[in-house]
Design brief:
globular; binds adenosine-5'-triphosphate; 11 helices; Alpha-Beta Plaits; 4-stranded antiparallel β-sheet; alpha/beta; 6-stranded mixed β-sheet
């Protein structure tokens, strides 16, 4: 759905994107992860056709950005970090304005605006002034604006950054629903727990380059970084310890009473098979939790590298 190759962008004399590449399959929820200043916003602004690339190729649904900007714009819905809505107009008028800008046919305009407000659950505020909305509601309005021309791909810049946990949860449900009805979603964030159980793919942007990308599992394996689990056994921690030491993909086993902690580099399926085997062998446990996801550790690893190289 989205192919980016060798993207270059200089801003204020600084090479912000340095040969950046990224492939987003159709129907993916793609988490673009990077530290502050890594270049996430710049990337999304280039993809949203708001910044002109200095070099490289961007193709959206097979259409080259350089050859058909207007066509690409129709395929993309962009939600920036700050919304910049016009004030003194109602929610409905605001969306109508953007729908016209996106050349939604006039005869469909009201219907489209009402449908989109319904999708983001803002129908009951449609006659209120934009400035009367809370932050979470403005964010829904920004999402509605990104959807008004029915784009195939949504580019969302740090959408959860300023939301409370409930609003974050609602946003996640909404995005999953949009994905279910066929939207491909690219979402930038440095809040990793927001992404780990939500994205199908991730890309790590590191100093203007893609450092690692793929499905969550592929990325973790590529970097040989491991997930860490904590299992509470009912009895026989010493036997459980020995058993885990012999199990494939298990490393750095630590024992604390009945609780054993270990890194695990296998797949989800392999992990669940390991748990079944432990149970079958009489090593019963009553709690399994993930202590830290590989994604977190990969992120911190990259930050350390960045600091070491700075
Ligand atoms: P954050 O998570 O803090 O929003 P980001 O990953 O989105 O960061 P960008 O906003 O894309 O990062 O910025 C990447 C780099 O480009 C930063 O070093 C930033 O200072 C620089 N930069 C961005 N815009 C400009 C500009 N207009 N002029 C000069 N430098 C810029």
């Amino acid at each position: 759905m989205l192919e980016v190759d060798s993207l270059e962008k200089e801003l204020g004399g600084r090479r912000v994107l340095r040969g950046f590449g990224m492939t987003v399959p159709r129907g993916a929820v793609y988490g673009l992860i990077g530290a502050n200043g890594a270049g996430k916003t710049t990337t999304l602004r280039v993809l949203a056709t708001l910044l002109k690339p200095d070099g490289g190729v961007v193709k959206v649904d097979g259409v080259d950005l350089r050859e058909a900007v207007r066509e690409v714009r129709r395929k993309i819905g962009y939600m920036p970090e700050t919304f910049g809505f016009p004030l003194g107009i109602t929610v409905r008028e605001c969306l109508g304005f953007y729908a016209r800008a996106f050349e939604v046919p006039t005869r469909n305009l009201n219907g489209v605006v009402d449908d989109v407000l319904e999708v983001v659950d803002l129908s009951d505020r449609r006659d209120d002034l934009v400035e009367s909305l809370s932050k979470g509601m403005r964010q829904k309005l920004a999402l509605a604006r990104a959807l008004v021309h029915d784009p195939q791909i949504l580019l969302l810049d740090e959408p959860a950054a300023s939301l409370d946990p409930r609003a974050r949860y609602e946003l996640r449900i909404l995005l999953l629903e949009l994905n279910r009805i066929g939207k491909t979603i690219v979402i930038s964030s440095h809040i990793l727990p927001d992404l780990t159980d939500f994205c199908t793919h991730v890309g790590f942007l590191h100093r203007g380059r893609m450092a690692a990308c793929g499905t969550l599992e592929e990325v973790g394996r590529h970097w040989r970084l491991l997930r860490r689990f904590r299992v509470r056994f009912m009895a026989e921690p010493a036997r459980a310890h020995l058993r885990l030491l012999q199990a494939p993909y298990v490393e750095r086993v630590e024992v604390g009473g009945l609780v054993l902690e270990f890194d695990y580099a296998g797949t989800e399926e392999e992990f669940s098979r390991l748990l079944v085997d432990l149970g079958r062998e009489g090593l019963l446990f009553n709690r399994v939790e993930e202590v830290s996801s590989g994604l977190d550790r990969l992120f911190f690893h990259m930050l350390e590298e960045e600091e070491a190289g700075a």
